[in-house]
Write a structure and sequence with these properties.
Layout: H1 3-18, H2 24-30, H3 57-76
């Protein structure tokens, strides 16, 4: 297992420990590991899952950390 894999798993584990009522799939979306395709028209949402095959592990780690920071900032209010 690569170091990046361990980081992703540790971040996910920590998030699920703090939020035990979440289902695993919810955590993947909440942390933007998986995400929906972007749409340019908010009146016409796209509920197709974006293909993350080409995303590097480091890019996924960045998304997770960004989401955790955002979640934390909402919790502080």
């Amino acid at each position: 297992m690569k170091q990046e894999h361990k980081i992703i798993l540790e971040l996910l584990e920590s998030y699920l420990e703090k939020n035990p009522s979440l289902r695993f799939g919810q955590a993947l979306f909440n942390l933007q590991i998986n995400e929906f395709q972007k749409t340019t028209d908010p009146r016409n949402p796209n509920y197709n899952i974006r293909d993350i095959y080409g995303d590097s592990d480091l890019k996924i780690i960045e998304r997770i950390k960004k989401q955790l920071d955002l979640i934390e900032s909402f919790e502080e209010k």
